[in-house]
Amino acid sequence: MATDYDAPRRTEADDLVEDSLEELTSRRHDGQSELVDIDDGDPLDAFELPGADLSGEELSVRVLPKQADEFTCTSCFLVYHRSRLAHEDGSELICIDCA
């Protein structure tokens, strides 16, 4: 909706004085629609890339165990390099992101 910033502004007192009950009820009925907007689901469900049928594909990822210079954050449980360590309280290791 476009806004005319040069037009004089109305205050709440102006609105109360100028608007009659008939005007308010007519505005309310004008703004309402008889149609109900029904969402047919996520629009991304219908979006499909051409030739992108990956249902028969398998992912092969090599998982490495935690290295000696890495730690597991006790707050977010992600594995980080020691350079991301914010502070250590006994056995609690907290990363920079959670600190």
Structural class: alpha+beta
- State the helix count: 2
Mean pLDDT figure: 78
Report the sheet with the most strands, covering strand number, pairing sense and barrel closure. Answer: 2 strands, antiparallel
In terms of DSSP E residues, the strand content is 15-25%
N-to-C order of helices and strands:
HHEEEE
Head-to-tail CA distance between termini: 44 Å
Report the strand count: 4
Assign a percent range to the helix content.
10-25%
Radius of gyration: 30 Å
Question: Which descriptor suits the 3D outline?
Answer: elongated
Could you characterize the architecture of this molecule?
- The chain is α+β, with helices and mostly antiparallel strands and 99 residues long.
- The protein has helices at 12-18, 21-31; strands at residues 70-72, 79-81, 85-89, 92-95.
- It has a two-stranded antiparallel ribbon with strand order 1-2.
- It is elongated.
Please render the helix and strand layout as text.
Blueprint: H1 12-18, H2 21-31, E1 70-72, E2 79-81, E3 85-89, E4 92-95
In short:
The chain has 99 residues and is an alpha+beta fold.
Question: Keyphrases for this structure?
Answer:
single chain; 99 residues; alpha+beta; two-stranded antiparallel sheet; 4 strands
